[in-house]
Amino acid sequence: MAADLAIEAVGLHRTYRTRTGWLRPRRGTVDAVRGVDFAVARGELFGLLGPNGAGKTTTIKMLNTLLAPTAGTARVMGLDVVRDTRAVRRRIGYVFGGDRGLYERLSALDNLRYFAELYGVPAREQRARIGALLDAVDLTGRERERVEGYSRGMRQRLHIARGLLHEPDVLFLDEPSIGVDPVAARELRAMIAELSASGTTVLLTTHYMAEAEELCDRIAVIAAGRLAALGTADELKHAAAGRRVLSVEAYGVTDAHLARLDALPGVRDATVEVSGAQQTLHIQTDAHVDVQSAVLRELAGVRLGRVETRAPTLEDAYVAIVNSTRTGVAA
User: GO CC terms for this protein (predicted)?
Assistant: First the structure.
């Protein structure tokens, strides 16, 4: 492994055994990860994107020693994740989204003291290190309150402090901003950027494209257990090069409408984003084709709002990449 690499994955596979039925059980296998290769430089903030079930979390768990690869190899800071498990764990931190991983009836301070013991932080260093981390995650003054009274954003900041207690070289952040309000999410992004700037290697998974574009030096897209794309945000946008996006606010669009829109000449992809009662159609088209009139005809009888044409974003490119793996057609 090159000395300047923090993470290296080569041909990673992970297969699960399955069982269905009770009277006559049928056994099978599911390939969650099917040969993933990538490398992350030391100090890089690397993004891992993909739809639910694509293999992102399974990949992270193999890299941080929680799952053994079925095949392939992975190294973290030059250490093999299978042969050098304990040494790898001393060099990494793992933060995941949600409410798991903290003791709610304890204060933030007691949580950090407890995990400092588990991580083997020397007793003479614990007080100063915990104090510095509480300052870094903006919880000073609230550290003696029980975690059960914390907001989701405060819990996530405490999760990050917990993951940094032993000063890891590599920090895995698995959807850290999930369920967090916009203000808290902005604070988390600023904190993650500061971590990377200080020299910590960060591997981030997220479903939020704006978050990935703002933070990540490079981004990998995993779909159906395989690496579908790898590059900077601008490089990934080339997957949607030669396209335009027609966005339509609507109320009452059905799957039948989407199917008819997908079949229109010049339409490359049609998806719908739902926010309460409002739907927003995102229709990717060939750049030289004007489909607006045809789209509006297909939506006759549907209540419509704003209609606009725009250049593709990273999210549009991501949709194009993921859908191309499902259809087998190049994006």
Answer: plasma membrane
Whether the pLDDT of residue 135 is over 80: the answer is: yes
User: What tokens were used for 87?
Assistant: 């040494």
242-310, CATH topology level: Alpha-Beta Plaits (3.30.70)
Per-residue pLDDT band at 179 (split at 50, 70, 90): confident
- For tokens 């994955």, the residue is 9
CATH 3.40.50.300 occupies which residues in the chain? 5-237
Burial 261-285 (b: 16+ CB within 10 A, else e): beebeebbbbbbeeeeeebbbbbbb
Lowest-pLDDT range, 36-50, 215-229, 314-328? 314-328
Give residue 126's pLDDT. Answer: 94
Identify the architecture of domain 5-237 in CATH: 3-Layer(aba) Sandwich (3.40)
Neighbours of 31 (CB within 10 A): 15
State pLDDT tens for residues 305-327: 999 998 888 988 998 898 877 65
Backbone phi, then psi, for 211, in 5-degree steps? -65, -45
Strand, helix or coil for residue 278: strand
CB atoms within 10 A of CB 131: 14
Distance from the Cα of residue 303 to its chain's centroid: 34
> pLDDT-based confidence at 180, cuts 50/70/90?
confident
| H/E segment holding residue 174 | strand 170-174
Q: Cα 67–68–73 angle (5° rounding)?
A: 125
Q: What single DSSP character describes residue 134? A: H
Buried b (16+ CB within 10 A) or exposed e, 165-198: bbebbbbbbbbbbbebeeebbebbbebbeebbee
φ, ψ dihedrals at 191, nearest 5°: -65, -40
* H/E stretch holding 226: strand 226-231
C-alpha neighbours within 13 Å on the C-beta side of residue 292: 14
How many angstroms separate the CA atoms of 218 and 206, rounded? 13
Query: How many separate helices (H) and strands (E) can be counted in the chain?
Result: 11, 14
